[in-house]
Amino acid sequence: MNTASHSEHRERRIVALLLIVGVVAVIRWGPTLQFNGMRLYFPDENGKTLKLEKRPIATLGTLEERAKDIVEELLLGPLSRDLRPVAHADISLERIVSGNNALYIDFTTKDLSRFSSEYAMFKAAVTKSLHETIPGNFHVYLYINGTLAR
Prior knowledge:
This protein has 2 domains: about 1-35; about 35-150, GMP Synthetase, Chain A, domain 3 (2-Layer Sandwich). The chain is an alpha+beta fold. The protein is built from 4 helices and 6 strands. The longest helix has about 30 residues, at about 5-35.
C-alpha cells in the first residue's frame, strides 16, 4: 500500500467523521434552535435563579403586541410546579409603548411595599424573557404606577 492510497483513506475517514458529527449536532440542537414559541423565565423553587419555561405560543404583530403577549404570559405564572410566579403581589400590565429602540412597560400594583422586595427578580424575569423571545437589540424600561423603577 503506497502513501497516496493511505492518505486517501485517512481523508475519507475524516470527512465521514465530520459528517457524522454534523448530523449528530443537527439532531441534538436543531429543535432548540428552531423553537419559535415563548421563552419565559421564572424563579426556581428557592427564588434565587431564573429557569427557562418554553411555551409553544408564537408571538405575532408589532413589537408592542409581542411584548404584551409575553408579559401577560409571565403574569399568569409558570406551568411547572418546580417554578414560582414572578410576583406574589397583585400586579397588572397597564400599557406598553415602544420607541427609540426601547420598550416602556408600565405596571400597576396596590401593594407596592410587598412588591418592592420581589422587584429585582421580577425585572430580571421580564427583561430576559423579552430579549430571549423577541429578536433584536432593544432596551427595556419598567414603570411601576407610572414611575420609572430602577
